[in-house]
Specification:
single chain, alpha/beta, 6-stranded mixed β-sheet, 47 helices, elongated
Length: about 1450
């Protein structure tokens, strides 16, 4: 120090002089503090000067007070024995007032003075103590204690200066409005200053809020406009529309974001150059250690170089990582929005190629991967560059001795090429298998009710299990090959270093000393990073390429042609079709509609009728432009409203569905409610029209869903209305009300085209179109068509015959009875019993998704190892990594020892021992990688099995209250996290922890003095991580709930795409989807920003340890540490910050990933329905032999806190009887069916079948013995055979016989016979044909008891009559329970059961009930007869 600053008589290098200067500076600050406090008191600013005390302030204040007390006490103790007591006393006073100053800071002047004081005091005191140690002087105990307190002071200075800035900002906002939303108050990244952006301080308010309380969605700030999906999608589609090639997705994305790509690439380049400079710096330090006469200025310059290098490396890496992920988020949002927009414009050909489940996968899995893609893309080019720089450094260090080391390096590179191709092959196979499993899972969840009714759970569970096993097969291949690759590239640096050292000994280009050895090792660490990361980056890029190819193939699919339907002014005509030829098949080989010539005037009411499969629904699709037009023209004037045959209902409230995002017009809204017969339903609902509708309208009956659809159409106030058989799901009374009040009255001035099977309404329409085989065979009004005969006459006669058949079983109502039905009465004006009878209490049916709050500690980790029972693998994994690190450390330690004692050990021994130790460590690296792969596979298999077992075993009430997208998110993205992310992240955390620990042990063993820095730094690191995790954990949990709505909305919108397009709401749905995407992306954005925030601060603390270690090594006298050990210490020190960043990043990722375990675990313990089989109480194989059903005081409610739906029903269904169950829609008929199949168990009472209580036997034993044709038919993707006989119990001959009996064989074209395809949800079959499939199933099962739940609602009267005959013939020996909306359907029943509001109103023979004109059944018949006779009785006669 004397060389640096010496003056005559005043030696600045003297420790006593330096200490006196420090005391004078502290005295100056103390006096200044008194002065500003006096000024503050004069201004009356001391009254409210106390501050909110954080834990670090309290700790620092108490520490300063304690050491002050000791200093003053020591001064008094030495009062008589030394002249220095005044100095100790003064220092004690300074410490004491430091403690006080933390709590008394009345204004900004005092705060700024204290900040400077804290910084100067801590920096000067710490530097003084450090210099004392380096000069060999011993520190007094009080000075030693002061070192960590100085670090704490420095920390408080930085933290609280920043808090003061925020307080000043808050104080300057007093003039602004108080009513700010949380997002408006949140820190905006776009408005942050340079320093704030550089250090990620702009996210401090969010982290502070997250540390003070668990975050929720409302706390998350909105994204900047430049990060929103709307802008991203607009930029992407603008470029994409110029190219539109399957393999052009990435080139288009690169063109859109080339500026961002280059900027993040620049960050990556700076980080690589800084990191690659570390071996050169180590070389300079080791050379400096050889100098006997050291120049301290040279040492300090090296330390400055070190600081600059670490600063550039740290900041560039943080902004590279953050910028890459921000860019990835934009690309991800762009593709998610583009895929959604594409699905709403997709042609029929595209819909056949890409199922709903596959499209959801494109959004949820493929597009999602782009979030990390730019980061890995830069790694793919920057790591080879780093490798080249390292090789150049090797040549500069050992010359030609590098050449032998290049041989294993080249071998590894050559192996990498086929290895990468193999990984790509396995990855593509895995993704195909994953798609198929996801599609099957989605299909099962959407049709869970029919699966449970038919007791097909085991079959479909096995299908999904088999698909999962195929998926796991490819996952195993992928992960195992990754393990081989990981082990290979861990071994390569070790092998290369041994070869280079051996080459150096043999060739003799340079001397094998500490300088050479540790420079080579540091360079090989630079090499090891690309050797480890390149395979992983290739794997990720391969996955992304496969995903982008899939997305590209989807985006180039054919879209609907807007020109197929012309919108123009047609004068008084609304619809005009000329020579229209249409085909669903792209090739046009099968013409679904041909020779269409239709002209419909404005305000005209047109009915379309015909047998099943005649093309009625296709005709409406032609008007909508959904079916490809081959020739002719379609012209429509005005806007369109469409009501589909299968009701499409959005998740949300009833009002939300009716308004369809239009402004609420009270008078029009009430008119819609009234004309669609929804008024009484809404009165009964606990939340009225604000009641939540479950996914796909699960908690509404079929009739309610149709009427909500109708209300939506009426409220839209369009010009042309297309109704596809909307009355099929409602009873006769309600259908008559809807026809009269809605079609004929509310839509009096509108053009209405009504597809219907209800012949009784045809006489009131203006025109009727009769369709057969895709052609309009007849056209005219009712009277004209009756005279021409043929097809229309057959339909009318079939209906007339059903009425005549009904008359033969009942007596015709009297004129008085008919008149009475027109009078309002409670019974005749009852609408549906509403969802209150379906168990909806005062709470909404669809439950909010539950998320854990706060810290769960070790529980998720415990679950991860406990479920697959692989604790032993964890022990082996940890042990393998420990042995690997220990052997690596021993190998390098051996080099330091042998270099120091080169006279004792020859070069051969030096290299040989090192090679043995290092090579042996590689065995453990391979074992560790293999164990990690197997651990992940076992966990994936175990979690998926228990998850699916729990879901399949869940009762129907679970599926009614849980959106399928919520389940699918766990089965897709969460399961993908378990498959790929958790196993290796866990491994990296374990290996990183052990590696950092080993590095610190090596450093401390060489320079023990850094313990003074290490211990506080570790405590601060732990605190910062804990501070960060509090927010990061909640961010990830919230993100888990924001992805599901994106997936749900995409799936829901795809299913309702016909309706969305018809209502011209495509743009609105695109905007809604973008809002959901942005909400999800904001969580991704802030999660990554928080990650970089913590990494930057943790890295800064580790860099302080590195710099301190280097400073000690520079200041220590020559010979105190040998060059070998100096090289050893610095070679490890230079990797410390990167190792700590590696550990912190993967630890943070693991904390985030482990939430997937928590989320899956939530659905692994769903309360199960009763067992499938009760071993001790199985019914005889012949049961039920008779088919007698006894209901004894049957009471049903769906939830404990909900009212009874069935209220004490007692009756007997005798063997071989035909029982008709009638009542208003929702009156309890379906609940009776649910009770019979035990979808819900009785709250009170019993159900006996052949004197056996069904609640005492297993569900499978019960349901396999019952047959059902459900109200909503369900088909599965596959073939005709797999849909009719899913369990494979019947021969082809039996299946053909069933097809013939249910008339599917005659009316359907089966090009591949029983292997003819059935698409997703049977979309390539009409609704009537799908219902016939369900009939075919029960014909094959031949059960003793059959339940028909309005089985013929979607077929015409002629087909209905035929099927009634088939059912009568085939099930003559069976007990048949028919739930019907059409009264003639139950006309030939032996007994009729009438339900109303869950009560048994009547149960008797139809003739007996009809004899009493006051009976509820007689009134229902009279209603039906009145509508029928009013419309068409004269013509029937």
């Amino acid at each position: 120090m004397n060389s640096l600053a010496t003056t005559d008589g005043f030696n600045l290098g003297s420790l006593s002089i330096q200490r006196s200067l420090i005391d004078l500076i502290n005295l100056f600050f103390l006096l200044s503090y008194f002065v500003v406090l006096i000024l503050a008191a004069c201004r009356k600013q001391l009254t409210n000067s106390r501050r909110n005390l954080n834990w670090e302030i309290v700790l620092a204040s108490v520490s300063c007070a304690v050491i002050g007390i000791f200093e003053v006490g020591f001064g008094f103790w030495t009062l008589n024995s030394t002249n220095h007591w005044s100095i100790w006393f003064l220092r004690g006073i300074v410490w004491a007032f430091l403690a006080i100053s933390f709590t008394i800071q009345p204004n900004n002047v005092v705060r700024n003075l204290c900040t400077v004081w804290y910084f100067a005091f801590s920096a000067l005191t710490f530097a003084f103590n450090l210099e004392s140690i380096t000069k060999g002087n011993s520190l007094q105990i009080l000075d030693l204690i002061a070192c960590p307190i100085c670090l704490l002071l420095l920390f408080c200075t930085i933290i609280h200066k920043r808090r003061n800035i925020y307080q000043e900002r808050d104080g300057n906002n007093l003039s602004e409005p108080l009513l700010y939303s949380k997002n408006e108050n949140a820190t905006n990244h776009n408005k942050a200053g340079f320093y704030s952006r550089l250090t990620f301080s702009w996210i401090n308010p969010l982290l502070k809020l997250g540390y003070s309380k668990p975050l929720d969605l409302n706390d998350i700030p909105i994204l900047d406009s430049e990060d929103c999906s709307s802008k991203a999608c607009e930029i992407f589609l603008k470029e994409w529309n110029l190219v539109k090639k399957p393999n052009s997705v990435f080139p288009v994305l690169f063109k859109c974001y080339k500026k961002e790509f280059f900027l993040t690439g620049l960050y990556a380049l700076l980080r690589t150059l800084a990191f690659s400079f570390s071996p050169i710096l180590l070389h300079l330090f080791v050379k400096y250690s050889y100098e006997k006469q050291r120049d301290l200025s040279k040492g300090f310059i090296l330390i400055i170089y070190l600081v600059i290098m670490k600063l550039v490396e740290s900041l560039s890496q943080r902004h590279w990582f953050f910028g890459s992920r921000r860019l990835g988020m934009r690309m991800r949002s762009a593709l998610m929005a583009a895929i959604f927009e594409k699905q709403l414009k997709l042609s029929n050909k595209g819909r056949k190629t890409h199922s709903n489940g596959e499209i959801v996968n494109y959004i949820a899995i493929d597009a999602y991967k782009l979030g990390e893609f730019p980061f890995w893309l830069h790694l793919a080019w920057i790591q080879p560059l780093q490798l080249i720089l390292a090789i150049i450094l090797l040549f500069g260090t050992v010359g030609l001795s590098t050449v032998p080391g290049l041989v294993p390096l080249i071998i590894c590179g050559v192996i990498n090429i086929p290895f990468g191709k193999l990984l790509q092959f396995y990855q593509s196979k895995f993704m195909v298998a994953q798609d198929e499993r996801q599609r099957a899972t989605s299909e099962v969840l959407n049709n869970m009710k029919i699966i449970k009714l038919q007791s097909w759970e085991d079959k479909f569970r096995e299908i999904i299990r088999s698909l999962r096993e195929t998926e796991l097969k490819w996952l195993k291949e992928t992960q195992t090959k990754k393990a081989y690759g990981s082990a290979l590239f861990w071994m390569s640096p070790t092998i290369i270093s041994a070869v280079i050292f051996a080459g150096t000994v043999i060739i003799g280009t340079v001397k094998l000393n500490a300088d050479t050895i540790f420079t080579v090792l540091a360079t090989l660490r630079v090499i090891s990073e690309p050797m480890r990361i390149v395979p992983e980056s290739l794997s990720v890029l391969i996955q992304v390429k496969v995903s982008l190819d899939r997305i590209g193939a989807f985006l180039v699919e054919e879209e609907l042609r807007k020109e197929d339907v012309n919108r123009e002014d047609l004068g008084g005509v609304s619809v005009n079709v000329e020579n229209g030829v249409f085909s669903w098949e792209p090739s046009g080989n099968v013409l679904n509609l041909r020779g269409l010539n239709v002209k419909i005037k404005r305000g005209e009411k047109v009915a379309v009728c015909g047998p099943v499969g005649s093309g009625k629904s296709s005709f409406l699709c032609a008007l909508l432009g959904e079916i490809p037009k081959l020739s002719g023209s379609v012209n429509i004037q005005g806007s369109i409203a469409y009501v589909s045959q299968a009701a499409w209902i959005q998740s949300g409230t009833i009002q939300h569905n009716i308004l369809f995002d239009k402004a609420r017009n009270a008078s029009l809204y009430q008119k819609c409610i009234k004309c669609c017969a929804l008024a009484e339903d809404l009165e009964e609902l606990p939340h009225g029209d604000g009641s939540e509708i479950g996914q796909r309208g699960r908690n509404l009956s079929g009739g309610q869903k149709q009427r909500v659809q109708l209300a939506r159409a009426v409220y839209a106030d369009k010009d042309v209305y297309l109704f596809d058989d909307p009355f099929s799901a409602v009873d006769a009374h309600t259908s008559a009300l809807l026809f009269r009040d809605c079609v004929m009255s509310a839509l009096e001035d509108k053009t209405v085209i009504l597809v219907t099977h209800q012949v009784e309404f045809l006489s009131e329409v203006d025109r009727i179109l009769v369709m057969e085989n895709g052609q309009i065979t007849q056209e005219g009004n009712y009277e004209q068509l009756l005279k021409t005969g043929t097809a229309f006459e057959q339909l009318v006669n079939a209906h007339s015959n059903s009425i005549a058949n009904f008359d033969s079983h009942t007596s015709k109502p009297t004129k008085l009875a008919l008149q009475e039905t027109k009078k309002p009465s409670k019974q005749t004006t009852e609408s549906e019993i509403t969802s209150n009878n379906k168990g909806l209490s005062a709470i909404q049916l669809t439950e909010e998704e539950k998320t854990e709050i706060g810290e769960l500690g070790f529980k998720p980790y415990k679950d991860y190892f406990s479920v697959p029972k692989c604790w032993n693998l964890l022990v082996l994994l940890t042990s393998s990594q420990c042995f690997f690190v220990i052997l690596q450390c021993l190998a390098t330690y051996w080099l330091a020892v042998s270099v120091r004692d080169q006279n004792r050990y020859g070069n051969g021994v030096l290299v040989g021992v090192y090679a043995i130790l290092a090579s042996f460590s590689c065995v453990f690296a391979y074992v560790r990688s293999l164990i990690a792969a197997n651990l992940g596979l076992r966990a994936s298999r175990a979690f998926f099995k228990e998850f699916m077992d729990s879901v399949f075993g869940a009762p129907m009430v679970f599926f009614d209250s849980t959106p399928s997208g919520r389940i699918m998110t766990r089965a897709s993205s969460d399961m993908s996290t378990l498959d790929f992310d958790i196993p290796y992240t866990l491994t990296f955390v374990i290996s990183g922890t052990i590696e950092v620990t080993g590095t610190l042990i090596i450093m401390v063993s060489v320079t023990w003095q850094i313990l003074v820095i290490v211990l506080p730094a570790i405590l601060l690191i732990l605190y910062i991580q804990r501070y960060y995790i509090a927010s990061a954990r909640e961010l990830v949990r919230i993100n888990g709930t924001t992805k599901a709505p994106v997936v749900n909305f995409a799936s829901e919108s795809n299913l309702g795409s016909f309706t969305i397009r018809a209502f011209e709401s495509v743009q609105r749905f695109i905007e809604m989807n973008m809002r959901l995407i942005d909400r999800d992306a904001s969580l991704f954005f802030y999660t990554n920003a928080a990650m970089e925030w913590v990494l930057l601060r943790v890295e800064a603390l580790q860099v302080s340890i590195i710099i301190s270690s280097a400073l000690f090594l520079v200041l220590l006298p020559h010979g105190a540490v040998s060059p070998g050990f100096m090289g050893l210490c610095l070679s490890y020190a230079l990797t410390l910050s990167s190792a700590q960043v590696f550990l912190t990043r993967f630890y943070s990722n693991l904390e985030n990933y482990i939430i997937s375990v928590e989320r899956i675990k939530q659905f692994m313990h769903i309360p199960s329905e009763p067992p499938a089989v009760v071993p001790n109480n199985r019914p005889p194989p012949s049961w039920p032999s008779e088919g007698r059903i006894d209901l004894q005081n049957l009471k049903i409610k769906y939830r404990q806190n909900s009212p009874y739906v069935l209220k004490g029903i007692t009756c007997t269904f005798y063997p071989k009887h035909k029982i008709g169950v009638v009542g208003r829609t929702g009156s309890g008929k379906t609940t009776l069916l649910n009770a019979l199949f035990r979808l819900v168990d009785p709250s009170e009472g019993t159900i006996l079948i052949d004197n056996l209580d069904i609640c005492g036997i297993g569900l499978k034993d019960l349901r396999m013995k019952l047959g059902i044709i459900p109200q909503e038919p369900a088909l599965f993707r596959g073939t005709v055979r797999s849909n009719l006989d899913p369990l494979g119990l019947h021969s082809d001959a039996e299946i053909w016989e069933a097809l013939e009996k249910c008339h599917l064989k005659s009316m359907c074209n089966l090009p591949s016979l029983l292997d003819s395809p059935v698409s997703d949800e049977g979309e390539n079959w009409s609704a009537g044909q799908r219902q016939l499939f369900c009939l075919g199933r029960v014909l094959l099962k031949k059960n003793r008891i059959l339940v028909l739940d309005e089985a013929t609602a979607s077929i015409d009267s002629a087909t209905d009559a035929i099927l009634q005959r088939v059912i009568k013939d085939e099930f003559d020996e069976c007990t048949v329970i028919t739930i019907a909306h059409r009264v003639p359907t139950v006309s030939d029943s032996d007994m009729v059961l009438v339900l109303s509001y869950g009560n048994l109103v009547e149960y008797d023979k139809p003739l007996n009930l009809m004899a009493n004109k006051d009976s509820a059944f007689a009134k229902l018949v009279a209603e039906y007869w009145s509508h029928y006779t009013q419309n068409s009785s004269e013509r029937f006669n």
